[in-house]
């Protein structure tokens, strides 16, 4: 499957999801930032918990390397925020019915590592953070982010075109869940 096709087929939901994230505001406050982190945690922790038992075996190692909820917990700790891990337990997770749809959902989470690099630099400037302290989640894989994204894109490119509809469906469902969490997300205790 051409990864560009996946990007184009989800561009509308990507834009809607970004609308719920005020992180690039020039006057971003710490309170706003923490609120967004809490909402991201809700989505990412729900994804990782669900994916642990649903990841197709051929992608298990790739999934395990890319778990990032712990980075959000590091950010909470750095910022002196307590996290309530039960805050996401009631989150309804989209039904992903195939390996291809799982990969589509993973595309959304992985794609966020690229935008996270820009967000991290902005947050560091506006909130005067030391790089990686309070914004570890947005720093993603650090210097390896580009390399890991290329590896993931290669997996998507290896998907048979006959399964591309399922990949797109999984990505669209995941964007929907993220948009819901980021717009209406329940926050965790501060």
From TrEMBL:
Q: Which GO terms describe its molecular function?
A: heme oxygenase (decyclizing) activity
Question: What is an annotated GO biological process for this record, any one?
Answer: heme oxidation
According to the lineage, what is the superkingdom? Bacteria
Q: Name one Pfam family in it.
A: Heme_oxygenase
CDD domains associated with the record: HemeO-bac (cd19166)
What name is this protein filed under? Heme oxygenase-like protein
Organism of origin is Terriglobus saanensis (strain ATCC BAA-1853 / DSM 23119 / SP1PR4)
Q: What is the lineage of its organism?
A: Bacteria, Pseudomonadati, Acidobacteriota, Terriglobia, Terriglobales
């Amino acid at each position: 499957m051409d990864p560009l096709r996946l990007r184009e087929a989800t561009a509308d939901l990507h834009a809607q999801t970004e609308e719920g994230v005020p992180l690039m505001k020039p006057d971003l406050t710490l309170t706003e930032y923490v609120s967004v982190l809490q909402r991201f945690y809700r989505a990412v922790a729900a994804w990782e918990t669900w994916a642990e038992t649903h990841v197709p075996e051929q992608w298990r190692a790739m999934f395990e390397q890319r778990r990032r909820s712990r980075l959000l917990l590091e950010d909470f700790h750095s910022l002196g925020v307590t996290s309530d891990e039960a805050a996401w337990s009631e989150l309804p997770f989209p039904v992903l019915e195939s390996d291809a749809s799982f990969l589509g959902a993973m595309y959304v989470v992985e794609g966020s590592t690229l935008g996270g690099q820009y967000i991290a630099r902005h947050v560091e400037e506006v909130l005067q953070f030391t790089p990686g302290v309070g914004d570890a989640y947005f720093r993603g894989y650090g210097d390896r982010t580009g390399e890991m994204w290329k590896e993931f894109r290669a997996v998507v490119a290896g998907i048979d075109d006959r399964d591309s509809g399922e990949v797109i469906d999984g990505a669209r469902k995941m964007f929907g869940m993220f948009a819901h969490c980021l717009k209406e997300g329940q926050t965790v205790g501060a």
